[in-house]
Amino acid sequence: MIIDNYSNINQIIAENSYSSVFLLLDTNTDNHCLDLFIKKSGITDFKKVVVKDGEESKSIDTCEYVWEYLNSNNGDRKSLLINIGGGVVTDLGGFIASTYLRGIDFINVPTTVLCMVDAAFGGKTGINFKSIKNQIGVINKPKGVLIDIDYLETLSKEEYINGFAEIYKHSLITDNVELQFKNLIKFDFREDINEIIHKYSSIKNKVVELDLYESNHRKVLNLGHTIGHAVESYSIISKNMNKLKHGEAIAIGLITELYISHKIHGFDHNEIISIKEELFRHFNKVKFKDIDQKEILKIMSYDKKNYDNAVKYVLLKSIGNPVIDQEVDNELFFKAFEFYND
Ligand SMILES: NC(=O)c1ccc[n+]([C@@H]2O[C@H](COP(=O)([O-])OP(=O)(O)OC[C@H]3O[C@@H](n4cnc5c(N)ncnc54)[C@H](O)[C@@H]3O)[C@@H](O)[C@H]2O)c1
Fold this sequence. Notes:
It contains 15 helices and 10 strands. It is an alpha/beta fold. It folds into 2 domains: about 1-155, Rossmann fold, CATH 3.40.50.1970; about 160-340, Dehydroquinate synthase-like - alpha domain (Dehydroquinate synthase-like, alpha domain, Up-down Bundle), CATH 1.20.1090.10. The strands form 3 sheets. Strands 1-8-5-4-2-3 form a 6-stranded parallel beta sheet. Helix 11 (about 225-235) crosses helix 12 (about 245-265). The termini are far apart. The site of nicotinamide-adenine-dinucleotide has 31 residues, from helix 2, helix 5, helix 6, strand 7 and helix 7.
């Protein structure tokens, strides 16, 4: 549920008679977003727990630290956790809340573009395990998601752009012509960000409503993620390349998986070229050597979306026309990287 104003968050708190309110922040959102949250919400009776910013905090050690904090500050089954931050904080906080005392309520207050348009919604919570992204987690929806683009004022340009990849992905899977890629690129990503966030997060919400537990239809949201997640995981452990942000990795996943879509399902080649150009306007090109590609393929074999011992992809026949559970030859995987590197 989207919470569009602060009186609604106060209403949720009043209606549920929570025994205590805990805020989870990372070091940056503690510095940049907490004052705004207090000022706008008027909530002053809370305890806050702050974790280090960055993907490394999506770990079991950080969970232990926060669970300990809740324990020693009288956390109980009627406590509420409010996660204020980007996807790291909402993934982590959602998981901590869902597992603490068999589950307490949580609200997400996303403070990055990526989180406002994607991560804060849909109930996927979790942490990384042994360098594999999101390997441990549960699906559990937040009590609400408060959207306020004023938090984006302090976000770096790099992090702002990081959110675009998921917006592009939503524009590729939606059957709503008005929101498809060709119309998305008419928006100004600064001026129109409020409209973009509301319109494109609704694409995800619609999919999740139909299939919360990803038994089928929800898999379409994984377009770009089979390769993208493996690239992101590889960039964390590899000495060959710099660590990539989630959006950067998903942009790579989109380009390579669209190429595969072209080869298997005849996705329009000219369209791939314009999508590739558009993505390269925002995201730097990364050079992948043969050895990198082989390691990425290895990581994909551990990917949680696999079953029947095969890596499964989401591919596109055309924009708005995704097909799930597709198997792809290794040879085509390497060709897709050739296309990306070209
Ligand atoms: N659960 C899902 O459905 C889902 C979907 C997509 C991505 N994700 C996850 O989301 C994570 C990435 O999220 P992200 O891109 O938001 O990264 P992030 O949470 O790491 O935030 C990016 C950086 O911006 C800082 N920051 C956040 N808000 C700020 C603000 N308003 N002002 C200044 N600095 C601010 C953070 O401290 C961090 O350093 C990944 O772990 C990814 O796996 C989850």
